[in-house]
Amino acid sequence: xxxxxxxLLLATxxxxxxxxxxxxxxxxxxxxxxxxxxxxxxxxxxxxSPTARHEAAFVRVGEKAYLLGGRGVLPVDxxxxxxxxxxxGASSPVEIHHFxxxxxxxxxxxxxxxxxxxxxxxxxxxxxxxxxxxNEWRTGATIPESRRRGGAGAVLHDDQIYLVCGITDGHxxxxxxxxxxxxxxADAWAQLPDAPRPRxxxxxxxxxxxxxAAAGRTTVAAAGPFGNTIGAVDVYDIPSxxxxxxxxxxxxxxxxxxxxxxxxxxxxxxxxxxxxxxxxAEVEVRSLPDGTWESLDSLxxxxxxxxxxxxxNQLIMASGCGNRGGKPELADVxxxxxxxx
Length: 341
Known about the structure:
By secondary structure, this protein is mostly beta strands. It has 1 helix and 27 strands.
């Protein structure tokens, strides 16, 4: 009986596992995933809506997507992807913003995050973990004091969490090129080689044993916080522990963007910059095998400070901020149809 229970548990975990950080379950196959139509706003049948927020996270676990964090102490908003309806979950234990979520063994890890008010936010000293099944928060491992920062990229690869770059002093400065690896099973940290350049306010992705750091900026509030955007894409090869920079730059430089890998293509969506007041709506895709960028249909409304998830033949984004900076915070959902070619 115990053996049968173990098999059923393994099957359930396998069925519910969704690769985190924008990684698609079919990454590595040669086929392309492309948009087949324009982005549309979603009308929620029962009238439910997410909490207006930005500098937050939107991530999928199984048949649901979770909107977490943002400025202030906010509840987790849960989107049932089958019915496209929202319910409210538990509020975060502290204010958590400027982070990229990692899904590990069915739980959502928040690390490389900030707390506090602009421009002097401080890095959170611990990992905070949300359990979707129990709708509960708990405090995880302590981050080494000398490596704490917010606005960092975070990805999962082979049960190891990689924390990429970030900023140590809110929006005032202290941007770093650090790369750290955290083993949640052993509760052990390791320092790895620095990236070619620091960056913050971005999302990292993984693909074929590599970590991609794209977009973002080096924030200096006193000089205007939306400048210093970065066009270079830096790539860390995990087996060899070496960095390189791609020869081509991001066509539209911005920070606060969402990122996802679908098959062999890196997608960058939305963001903010000093070139325009309204948040960016650009959707730009880079073919990782042949190194070419392509512009796809723009978001129906630009936004920054949120994420993107894939569910079946849809890409979905929720909330975020409609202009650069902090207002207006959005409480909507947009989707676009995708297809494999």
